[in-house]
Write a structure and sequence with these properties.
Length: 875
């Protein structure tokens, strides 16, 4: 009888063990990858409206295969746990099967729930402790086998458990596991967004009852999920290798308790900064920002000092300061930003063929924005610039920046709309407005303290010439001083190239270049802008340069920024200004319109054939390929079609015209003639790509000026340096490269294109080929328009005593002289009659000591030099 009972007990025990899968490790914190078909179907349908971005999921795919992954969120949420479990399983990513301190019942397979109940009942009857996934080693085992887990950092009840009652802290537990496990644990912070609104300084009534968009309650989650699921998106922050972190902390002597506190704090800080990089900092009202600026101790001292210096009541100074702030400050509003996004999307669809953006670099800028405010520095070619850049930020889940706008754009109603989109307005000059300058500086300081990104155009205004203008350093200097005053931990500069196949303002630019007055912006212009939406303007090209951290830049500086004198700060400011221009040039894109315009204007004659034009274009294309310059896809993949499309566009716009006897003539036999009155517009598009050809143009002109078919490279240096200095107001030289570097680089490109042949026996000596002599002209003619403009100004100064003309009147006198010289054929190019080139030339000569006809020695020097180069640039 006893034997039969033993067999029966053994049989029952075996069946029970098989039913329990030979384990007592059954916990509600575990949610298996494979659920029942009904649970899987429900969850799949429930979360189907939320889209996963490939750029985000690729971050997880880049984690080493041997790693154990722990997804980390800020707030505890079964909604989010189930979302990541469901969607990651769908996309083939490691889905979280273990939830630290989670108890998931609803979607567990029934068989698992039964096993969990049995385990707990058995523990109750045996009067032992309830099963614990930490103490049993279950979680350790699952992670060591490579299963993914899910950890939330903030939850009131769990905080009380581990902080007060000394229960297991999951963060400390992870550190203990990592110390005893070879497999690295990667902590992957996750953020689920239910909207892009910044955190409001004062929560609304709806936020109080239903939670904010940053931490919504269940009703708000469900309402957003079912009504507007497109508002919900997921972001993955930079994964942390726990193994590497522990090694660093061990070397510093930190104990495990300290390590767990550091890890929790670092994860929370990373998540908070990542959220801010998308929604922006806490959004305070305009009045709140105004009060906080005007009441700081520093600004109170400034106002008292100003009142004492001017001998006026402090109340009057406060009133003026408040009025200045009203004139300057933005009124950042998500409603205005959403309206702007709708308008820009509509304009892009109506007027453009699309936008090309280097998203990879933008993602890196977005990632580094957690370290400090981003200072976007775009080039400025059109009013579309600030609209399209904010649009790109919004589309890529980044906060729209605060934008420095000229006071001319503050007119009603556009000014009100722009303020809502983040624009703050700045006067063209601070001259004589001491208090205004102080108020503006304090406003910038406050924006950086709050963590807002800022966008400003370092050229000051839109370029009417198509190339980059010399940097205006006023706002950059204010930013650097704010950084020096510890407004932020770091400043991240992000230079941006914005280019267009065709700009909206080309006719207005033509008028201004030829000496016409700029028409002030007003509401009437907005009404007249309707005519623009009836045309197509090609593509827009936006390329971001790699972000430049001021902290990293200053690591190589001998003097800390806090110890710099004003002279050293000015030097740093100039360096950053030139470096920003260099960076924009480096990420510029050569478009078909720019390349064809260059070839047309660099043809020696007004009338040219299609074959002659293609000869120029192919020479330039060869150079661009050798220099690895970024070009549009249309130029790379189908050059002939791209050129033909641009020629057709230029013919339709009457920039050029057919001169062939028959319209049906083969393309090779087609000839064209340039419309002289439209040359300045073609000059604008030529200048869109001129920066890439300037080193080659300087080198080619230096070779041609020697008037010999054989030369030594060292003989080019003095000529190159002269040209670089002569045109420093036109082209910013690369601040970190020497003239020798560009000479060598250009010579190599010329050799590769058979323009030059190295001498067989003489070192560093080259011969110009017969074909190469012609091609050197192709490059050097990029400079002819500038030489002619400078020659006009030089002739005026040569003929005019310094005291005979008021400084403000010089430019007005130079313009008619240029027109007469053009009519008398003393200069050849219509585009040389540019008020903007005249101004740059006048500034150069004044700085170089040619101020009037009495400066004979300088006049003789420059006369010989300019004439020599003009001679070698002739046909």
């Amino acid at each position: 009888m006893g034997f039969q009972f033993m067999n029966f007990r053994k049989t029952i025990s075996g069946r029970f063990s098989r039913a329990m899968q030979h384990s007592r490790d059954h916990f509600l914190c575990s949610l298996p990858e494979r659920l029942g078909w009904f649970s899987s179907w429900i969850l799949k349908r429930f979360y189907s409206g939320i889209k996963l971005s490939a750029s985000q999921t690729d971050i997880i795919r880049s984690i080493p295969e041997n790693a154990a992954i722990v997804y980390v969120t800020k707030f505890k949420s079964s909604f989010e746990y189930l979302f990541y479990h469901t969607r990651y399983r769908q996309t083939g990513l490691p889905c979280p099967e273990i939830g630290f301190d989670y108890k998931i019942i609803s979607f567990q397979p029934i068989s698992r729930i039964m096993r969990i109940c049995i385990v707990h009942i058995a523990a109750l009857f045996q009067k032992g402790p309830f099963p614990d996934p930490y103490k049993s080693g279950y979680i350790r085992k699952q992670l060591s086998e490579g299963r993914a887990a899910f950890l939330s950092l903030v939850e009131k009840r769990n905080f009380y458990r581990w902080f007060v009652r000394a229960k297991t802290d999951p963060v400390r537990y992870l550190i203990e596991i990592q110390k005893s496990m070879d497999r690295p644990i990667y902590l992957v912070p996750q953020l689920l967004f239910f909207g892009r609104k910044p955190i409001p300084a004062i929560p609304s009534v709806i936020d109080a009852f239903f939670g904010t968009e940053q931490h919504p309650g269940i009703l708000r989650r469900l309402a957003t999920l079912f009504r507007t699921p497109e508002k919900i998106f997921m972001e993955v922050s930079e994964p942390l290798n726990l193994q590497n972190l522990i090694e660093q902390w061990d070397r510093r002597g930190h104990g495990i308790e300290h390590q767990s506190l550091l890890l929790r704090r670092n994860l929370l800080l990373q998540i908070n900064r990542h959220r801010q990089s998308i929604t922006g900092p806490i959004l305070k009202s305009r009045e709140e920002l105004k009060i906080s600026i005007l009441t700081t101790e520093r600004f109170q001292t400034l106002m008292n000092h100003h009142a004492g210096k001017k001998g006026i009541p402090i109340q009057q100074v406060r009133k003026e300061a408040a009025q200045y702030l009203d004139e300057i400050a933005a009124n950042y509003s998500m409603a205005a930003i959403k309206l702007g996004e709708f308008i820009v999307r509509w304009l892009l669809k109506l007027m453009y063929d699309g936008v090309t953006v280097n998203i990879d670099t933008l993602s890196r800028i977005k990632n580094i924005s957690k370290k400090g405010p981003i200072i976007f520095i775009p080039c400025h070619k059109s009013h579309m610039d600030y609209l399209i850049l904010s649009y790109i930020m919004y589309q890529n889940n980044m906060p729209c920046p605060h934008i420095a706008a000229g006071q001319n754009l503050s007119f009603w109603p556009i000014g009100t709309f722009f303020r809502g989109g983040g624009a703050f307005f700045i006067r063209r000059t601070f001259k004589g407005a001491v208090l205004y300058a102080k108020v503006f500086s304090e406003y910038i300081q406050k924006l950086l303290e709050e963590g807002f990104n800022i966008e400003f155009f370092i050229e000051g205004g839109r370029s009417r010439t198509g190339k980059l203008l010399t940097p205006k350093l006023g706002l950059l200097s204010i930013l650097l001083n704010a950084y020096k005053n510890k407004a932020c931990e770091d400043l991240i500069f992000a230079p941006v190239f914005i280019g267009y196949d065709r700009v909206l303002e080309e006719n207005a630019y033509l008028n201004e270049v030829e000496g016409g007055q700029k028409e002030p912006e007003n509401f009437r212009q907005v009404i007249r802008a309707r005519k623009f939406i009836k045309k197509r303007y090609g593509r827009i090209y936006i390329h971001f340069h790699e972000p430049i951290s001021l902290n990293e830049l200053l690591q190589h500086h001998e003097v800390p920024v806090q110890d710099m004198t004003q002279k050293e700060m000015n030097s740093l400011c100039r360096y950053l200004g030139i470096r920003a221009l260099n960076a924009i040039d480096k990420v510029s894109v050569v478009t078909p319109h720019a390349l064809v315009a260059s070839a047309i204007l660099n043809c020696a004659k007004r009338r040219f054939s299609y074959d002659h034009l293609m000869d120029h274009i192919e020479t330039y294309m060869s150079f661009l390929f050798l220099q690895k310059i970024k070009m549009t896809d249309t130029l790379i993949h189908d050059l002939v079609h791209a050129v033909d499309s641009v020629l057709e566009s230029y013919v339709q716009r009457k920039f050029i015209e057919h001169t062939s006897n028959s319209e049906d003539a083969p393309a090779a036999e087609t000839s064209y003639m340039v419309n002289e009155n439209k040359r300045p517009i073609l000059e604008y598009y030529k200048n869109n790509c001129i920066s890439f050809f300037i080193p080659a143009a300087f080198t080619a002109a230096s070779i041609l000026s020697r008037d010999a078919f054989q030369f030594c490279s060292t003989e080019l240096r003095s000529s190159y340096i002269f040209l670089q200095d002569f045109f420093k107001n036109e082209f910013a030289p690369e601040i970190d490269k020497t003239p020798e570097f560009f000479i060598r680089k250009s010579l190599k490109a010329f050799i590769d294109d058979a323009v030059l042949m190295p001498h067989p026996s003489l070192p560093d000596t080259y011969n110009v080929t017969s074909e190469g002599f012609r091609k050197l002209k192709f490059y050097s003619r990029f400079l002819k328009v500038f030489f002619e403009s400078y020659w006009v100004v030089f002739q005026f100064l040569k003929r005019t005593p310094q005291e005979s003309v008021d400084a403000k009147e010089r430019l007005k006198k130079i313009q008619p002289l240029g027109n007469r010289m053009y009519k008398n054929r003393e200069i050849e190019l219509k585009e040389s009659l540019s008020k903007l080139y005249y101004k740059n030339a006048l500034d150069f000569f004044m700085e170089s000591g040619v101020k009037g006809s009495e400066d004979t020695e300088k006049i003789e020097f420059f006369s010989d030099r300019i004439q020599k180069y003009l001679t070698c640039l002739e046909t």
